[in-house]
Amino acid sequence: MPLLVSNVPWTDEPLDDARRVAVHLGLSPPEILSVQLLKRSVDGRRRPPLWLANYRVELRDGEPAEQRLLQQGRHGLRLFTARDAQRFASSVPVPDLRSTWPASQRPIVIGAGPAGLFAALRLGEAGAPALLLERGEPVERRHYDVRAFWRHGQLDPESNAVFGEGGAGAFSDGKIYTRRRDGELGWVFRRLVDHGADPRVMEEGWAHLGTDRIREILPRLRARLAELGVEVRFRARVDRFVVEHGRCVGVELAGGELLRGAPVIVATGHSARDTWQAMLDAGASAEQRPIHIGARVEHPQRLVDQARYGAERGALPPASYRFTSVPPAGRARPAHTFCMCPGGTIVAASNHAGRVVVNGMSYSNRRAAFANSAVVVEVLPSDYGAADPLAGARFQDHIERLAFDSGGGGFRAPGQLVEDLLAGRPSQGLPKVSYTLGAQPTDLREILPGPIIEGMREALRHFERQLPGFAGPEAVLIAPETRTSAPVRFTRGPDLHSLGLPGLMPVGEGAGFAGGIVSAALDGMKAADAVIATVGAG
Ligand SMILES: Cc1cc2nc3c(=O)[nH]c(=O)nc-3n(C[C@H](O)[C@H](O)[C@H](O)COP(=O)(O)OP(=O)(O)OC[C@H]3O[C@@H](n4cnc5c(N)ncnc54)[C@H](O)[C@@H]3O)c2cc1C
Q1: 113 CB near ligand 1 (under 6 Å)
Q2: Nearest alpha carbon, ligand 1 atom 30
Q3: 157 plus 64 within the same structural domain
Q4: Owning domain of residue 401
Q5: How many domains does the chain have?
Q6: pLDDT tens-digit profile of 59-111?
Q7: Residue 80 is part of a domain; what is its CATH number?
């Protein structure tokens, strides 16, 4: 059985993987039969910080040699188990139903974000003649729309930072790490690499793509979908679901065109509030769910590097962090940092006129001089002020409108120095921030409800103890970060069909079943597999 060798130092010396492992284990290179790099990440706790790698290793002399090594009781060395094999599997096969797929059964997928794209891709690979409908533009054109918004505040409500090919994840940092590792994840990662992602994302512990890379991957994915027989339509907004005899059997587009098909996979993300309403109108069942709201905090990247690495970063990647604050019950609400973007910028992420929402993005090289993350606080359905499923969306919308007004228009965002928030005074001025549409110094208490402010204050003080400078004079807050996930969940049964409306399959982040690019893609894949299983079963 192979060995799992963990924490092998990855130095600058030009060693190949086999030599690196041999040096680490005190063996000569010919004693190694094969090595497979599984994971690589920086250990920032070491001084100096160091890249460490994990490998699957086979020795030429097989079991006796492995037993000899294991008997040395070395830390970070054990047998590579069947469970490890499952964790690091690189795919899950798709059945080929091309010749048997019933011509009458055309699945419709709504939304070309990660959930919809990967659902359509999986269906296409199985031979389904699926139809993918996207309200926004293909990424090449969307790029110009997003640029016009971020530079000049000209918002196209249908093609922007959250709507259009690639969904909300297209103009992002593109973090694609999750704690989960298995064959399904392997399938998603493998497809990303097949269509242009850096192959190292398969191994990086903290892999990210970056906006520039995502922009290259999307047209290739689109071409692959066409090759597989999946029809992709842009500027095709679904406004209504067609229901016959209690089942969803198709959709109506803006403009009135009717399209029949089933099932209808709805992967419309957490910003399509109009589509949530259309789903409810058609009979889909939904419930409220908690969310997190707060503001982006921005620091010079140099400050984060120095605090994490104890020095300038040199050749290491820009340092990142992830913090949680769980104050004693009754003092303040729990909070955490979310979607940290090292070497990134804060961006406008609204699709609605008169609303300010911020988020973070970066390019693949993460070269920007700033680091940002959202500091977000738990918000419960009891805060929403009403019991209907969309009350949470109205709660978000209220904050976003206040923020727009407070920014003074033109999508300027309200901002405050962390020190001023902690001292309970409005900011009179702000240092240079990365948010391109400008920040208006203010008092965030005018925008965010009291419990969110208290949770953020408690968290910022706590994070300062973990990263000196986090709440220091260079730290600025830009608000609000309201759309960390969906405040509603569209309930579904074991077959992933809506409990209230069979034939409709709510998936991804907007349906309340994912939070992030990879989990949305996995949920889309799961929905496709459920469809494929019913067709495969005859
Ligand atoms: C700026 C930014 C940065 C982010 N950074 C990261 C990150 O680094 N890592 C990470 O994991 N996550 C990140 N996220 C979150 C991530 O993008 C989302 O979790 C993910 O995209 C959700 O995928 P989804 O497919 O469920 O929905 P979405 O990506 O939101 O896609 C929904 C799609 O449906 C389309 N649509 C909506 N309504 C209709 C309709 N009625 N008819 C037709 N089409 C419709 C939309 O145009 C959109 O393309 C970021 C988000 C933003 C905004």
Answers
A1: yes
A2: 269
A3: no
A4: 290-481
A5: 3
A6: 999 888 899 999 988 888 999 888 778 777 777 888 899 989 998 899 999 99
A7: 3.30.70.2700
